[in-house]
Amino acid sequence: MRQSVLDPNWASFNYDKIIADRAEAVVNGLDRALTPPFGSGSRFVWLADTTVTQQCAAELLAQLERTLPVIPPTTVLLLTASKKPDSRLKSTKLLVKFEAQVREFSPIPPWNDAELVHRARQVANDMGVKLTPTAVEVLASKAGSNTRLLYGELEKLLLFARGRSQPLSPEEVEALASGGAQNTFKLADAIRSGDTSGALELLAGLTSRNESGIGIAAVLAGKFRMWLWVKVMVQAGERDDKIAQALELGNPKRVYYFRQEVKDVSLEKLQKTLPLLLELEASLKRGRDEVSTLQTKVIELSSLFR
For domain 180-304, which architecture applies? Predict the structure, then answer.
């Protein structure tokens, strides 16, 4: 969106991103939205992490009522929030009244390859980052379902590719993108193989790059749930197309690889992973030390498969 409305020559003058989790920050953003753009193109004001559609004091609501009707057509005002807007609030109703476009971005399951690739391609196009089709797949595998990581990696690729017309190659994306999600998938593979030392080594790499403990736990839980689903459906004699449909896979051929991954793993062992993964998530949310908590659970999980 930003790339489509800003003139690159004037972008530094006409683009504002404001963390709008306080009323003063929202008011500041609204004031900037009223400022005409410098040079050519439009002005783009992004109020990130805003809470105005969750709670809105009377003074801030009054400011919205004064500002929204007079925002010039040369300004794009973007509000983003982690929670769905509360349709009962006057502030939300006011935004709807002025024909605000509302888009919801639901998390994509980490095993839904087709949707992850589609999202990566769409965001890359929006940001003006040229990638070969295979490079898009590499990026999707590295970012996984972490949208913030996807945008961060694309910002990095955008800087690297500035001034060149040729799309980035898979090798360049492989070298530049951090691949936190992909390494968490490798961690899941090591656990499933009962390779405790390898799993701990992969975990150390993830934590040294400050990967979120909750994020690591979420990817592991998603991967093991998927393996459990596949194992249950394979033992029930379901066809690959039915399994693909249950897992929301865009490409049913992926089921073959998932079958291979769980071929030598018992259903009972996969079932035992879920309580441990729930304990891991609960411990991290209670504020337990991330590294030691993750290490303990990785040892317990991998011990199941030895």
Answer: Up-down Bundle (1.20)
